[in-house]
Amino acid sequence: MNGLIRAIIDTNALRHNLQSIRKRAAGSRVMAVVKANAYGHGLVNVAHALPDADALAVARIDEAITLRSAGVRHPIVVLEGVFSAEQLQEAAVQNLEIVVHDPVQIELLERFRGPEHFPVWIKIDTGMNRLGFRPSDFPKVLERVRAVKASKIRLMTHLARAEERDCPMTREQIARFSDIASKLPYETSICNSAGIFVVENDHGNWLRPGLALYGASPIPRESAASFGLKPVMTIETTVIATRRVRAGETVGYGGAWKAARDSTVAILAGGYGDGLPRSLDNGTPVIVDGKRAPMVGRVSMDMTAVDVTDIPNVHVGMRGSFWGQGISVEEVAVHAGTIPYELLCGVNQRVPLYVI
Ligand SMILES: *Cc1c(COP(=O)(O)O)cnc(C)c1O
User: Fold this and answer.
1) How many CB atoms are located within 10 Å of the residue 57 CB?
2) What is the number of the ligand 1 atom nearest to the C-alpha of 196?
3) For 235, which DSSP code?
4) pLDDT tens, 285-322?
5) Residue 2 confidence (pLDDT) above 80
């Protein structure tokens, strides 16, 4: 058996999703968000699989340097910006686009003496209250950034509640942003994945999809397929044991599941040591031999138990999957009381990525 558990990364699905995203906002350009190891899909793999992305976006400069070292030539936006003169110098040398969201970062630009001209994205806080300048401070900020010879200016903001359809806060955020941006000649960026599919028209020049690119639905209770998205990651697992369990017996740590009938239980490779949350509950769907079966008992570090009583002839060596093709990561996330982002990013180093 070749690897008991692995994450299959379908690069055709990735490119398909990029096309579906483009269709939502014709004329916009796309910066593919590849922070956090491309949401667990492999930073460099994903960058190489998306030659048509107009840019890539990462959270931190280290991620950008990893991409450049791997020969990635796309424009790269560093969403959290830089925090020292050395990092700014590195950003200039590596030809990175930086976000400024704090006065400290403007000071760094003011002290910069290099010959490079690179795009500086000014982040405007329209209500998220995380990063960015308040609209009331913007005129002063703009004046300072304009005075910096190194910069070509662009404007961005981030939506706090885009995954809720018809949310007044989203409309307010866009109105605050447009108030500023519509009077200026600069390129803009507003929408993450949810924004791309919820907002009509006001998408700005640059889309910033993360989750949707990886084929998970950005809107709760709406399917990825309804947005033309296909899952990119499938976590494939293997049956490493089977056993008969009599009615009344329990399975696993804490006896957290008790068989109501005589049952067949399959043990699958994959546990919290691989990134499956321990909070996954009894009944979480898993695929074994192409069919759905419910998880039973607690997730262990290396393995997970599944009730396969209703699937004939389950045996050691059979394949299954925890999410991806046939079972969406969104659906599994609900069973752990979390969001698909956390499951995708949480896939552990020990799970090899198999890029197809
Ligand atoms: C992570 C991030 C995104 C991507 O968000 P998704 O919801 O995954 O599409 C977009 N913009 C910013 C500023 C981000 O930090």
Assistant:
1) 27
2) 9
3) E
4) 999 999 999 999 999 999 999 999 999 999 999 999 99
5) no
